[in-house]
Amino acid sequence: QVQLVEAGGGLVQAGGSLRLSCAASQRTINVNTMGWFRQTPGKEREFVAGYDPSGATNYADAVKGRFTISRDSAKNTIYLRMNSLQPEDTGVYSCAARIPGTTQYHTWGQGTQVTVSS
After folding, report:
1. Chain centre to alpha carbon of residue 91
2. Segment holding 23, helix H or strand E
3. In terms of C-beta density within 10 A (0-12 exposed, 13-18 middle, 19 or more buried), how is residue 91 classed?
4. CB under 8 Å to 112, separation ≥6 — which residues?
5. What CA–CA distance (Å, rounded) separates 67 from 112?
6. In sequence order, which residues have a C-beta less than 8 Å from that of residue 56 and are 6 or more positions away?
7. How far apart (Å, rounded) are the C-alpha atoms in residues 32 and 96?
8. Which residues does 65 contact at the CB level (< 8 Å), separation at least 6?
9. In terms of C-beta density within 10 A (0-12 exposed, 13-18 middle, 19 or more buried), how is residue 69 classed?
10. Is 70 in contact with 22 (CB distance < 8 Å)?
11. Which of 99, 90, 95 is nearest to 12 (CA)?
12. For the chain, which has fewer Cβ within 10 Å, the N-terminal or C-terminal residue?
């Protein structure tokens, strides 16, 4: 069974940067659409960024121009580079995988906490 393990979260001041990683236990990222999501208390989980097997990427409007999703196929890992972080970016960030052409993400990581102080 595929497993996703996130790392790289932490505490950062507003305006700072972090890079999250999501390592897959199998060659998941080359055949699945991968996504990053975040959740804060009292709010629904929201989509942040996606990367499909063709290399196409997409972003939530709130992070466009600040966040970059990338892939290292050799390491079976996707990354989320986050620049110009703001307090509203605080949350638990999780990566997930879905079969291209479907809407349901079938595998989720445990999440990593990102806290941005003002």
Report:
1. 12
2. strand 18-24
3. buried
4. 6, 7, 8, 9, 20, 92, 93, 94
5. 16
6. none
7. 9
8. none
9. buried
10. no
11. 90
12. N
> Tokens 């975040």 identify what position?
38
**Do the Cβ atoms of 54 and 48 come closer than 8 Å?**
no
Write down the residue that tokens 């199998």 correspond to.
Answer: 26
Q: How far is CA 57 from the centre of its chain?
A: 12
| Structure token pair of residue 32 | 């699945």
Structure tokens at 35: 């996504």
Task: Look up residue 57 and give its two tokens.
Answer: 């990427």
Structure tokens at 107: 């595998």
